[in-house]
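Exercise 3.2. Students should predict the tertiary structure of the chain below and write it as structure tokens, then compare their answer with the key that follows.

Predict this chain's 3D structure.
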Amino acid sequence: MAPGQLRVLYALDVARTQLYHFTATVIAGMGFFTDAYDFFAISLVTDLIGYKYYLYQGEVHIPRSVSAAISVIALCGAVPGQLVFGWLGDKMGRKRIYGVTLILMVVTSLASGLSFSKRVGKNVVAVLCFFRFWLGAGIGGDYPLSATIMSEYANKRRRGALIATVFAMQGFGNLAAGIVGMVVAAFFMKSDPSSHADFAWRIVLMFGAVPASLTYYWRMKMPETARYTVLVAKDAKKAASDMSSVLNVNIAPEDEAVNQLTRQGQYGLFSAEFLRRHGVHLLATSVCWLAVDITFYSLNLFMPYIFTRVGLLPTLKKGDNPFKLMIDIAKLHTTIAICGTLPGYFATVALVDRIGRLRIQILGFTMMSVFIICLAAPYDQHWTKPKNKYGFAVMYGMTIFFANFGPNTTTLIIPAEIFPARLRSTCHGIAGAFGKIGAIIGVFAFRYTEDHVPRTLFGLVGCNIVGILFTLLLPETKGKSLEEIAGEIEEQQPQQHADAAASAEHVQVVPV
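Answer key:
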């Protein structure tokens, strides 16, 4: 037990990995499952929306501004969602705000599929964008809360793997989007596209409400994290009671130690002390997240367009069945998820607590750059030839693999570990908001330079290099307690150090 560490937090750090951890992982992970489904399902149905509302003389002509708005509006909502709900998570508790974001996601997923207007066409798309903005706000709020809750529940030996497992549910959400898209398109395959395309895209979007609603009850049954209850709410009895029941250990409350913590002057976000201790950390986590999301979201949201350019997907022409194209896009989406996305997440889960967060992040940025260069350099001379299209798909899949076995996962883990409990959700939300700003930049940059794919890909390489440089400013968090990483133990008085060390024997825990 580290000097100055409270018994209840020590119990969490050394507890064996048990059913409680796996239950929390699944419950928190379903938020990311829903996030990924809602973010990436839109790329599967954009052509159907165009077929319904932008069909002129038998051909689809979606204006670039409309296509970009449909793709990016949820990301725009995620930025204020991460900032506001992240801040509220520190002010009002992780659990309470967790439920609010979930309800918002369920309601707006259903509303997105019920986007109607008396005047069809642009008005329907405008209503859809309105509801997807608020859907994005709920998704954005889920990021800091899910990551913070899991980091504060986890033991220190397997904390990285548990947070990565929560985030890996995003891969299954990505996979689910492809499967649902194929099933819905197959169901309507033999129907009249002009009358049924409207039903198909609405069903796909509304399905996002299902996984979120199924987990609401279990989310509300989870106790507030002990670290919030002790270090922010200052309720030692409740924290000891909650953790004693879920960890099956006897933990005595430490009212005196918590009272001493309350009397200490604790720095705020906009203080010189925070700037000295964590200013560089907040800058580095924000820039790294911005850099990786420019690459990750542009490649994922514009996958159908990229693969159309190299001949792996057909272009929707006059007389074509849009449901057939939707099945082709969903098949490719599912294949990439199975061969690239999920293996990348699994590799991070297996290795993040062995080789460390920073090594994985640097490796991921580096290998993404290598494979993107392999895509961009010979693009016009090599990949546009029909016989080479499958090689392009392999290179693309490896880029996605190293995004997930790399910065796409570690940029979520690190901000959930390195900031103090009273600011953890807020700072995670700030870093995540920069990530979604990066995603918005990537989407607009790709949409308005789509005729120059190699140039855009080389720009993504530059983003990865920036990510590597800022990763070097971050501390390694592997195997350390959250209080040690954030410097919260240092803030306690010398007498607390002696009292906590003397009382460690009262904690009955089973080490991992």
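Discussion points: DSSP finds 23 helices and two strands in the chain. Residues 53 and 121 are 5 Å apart (CA to CA).
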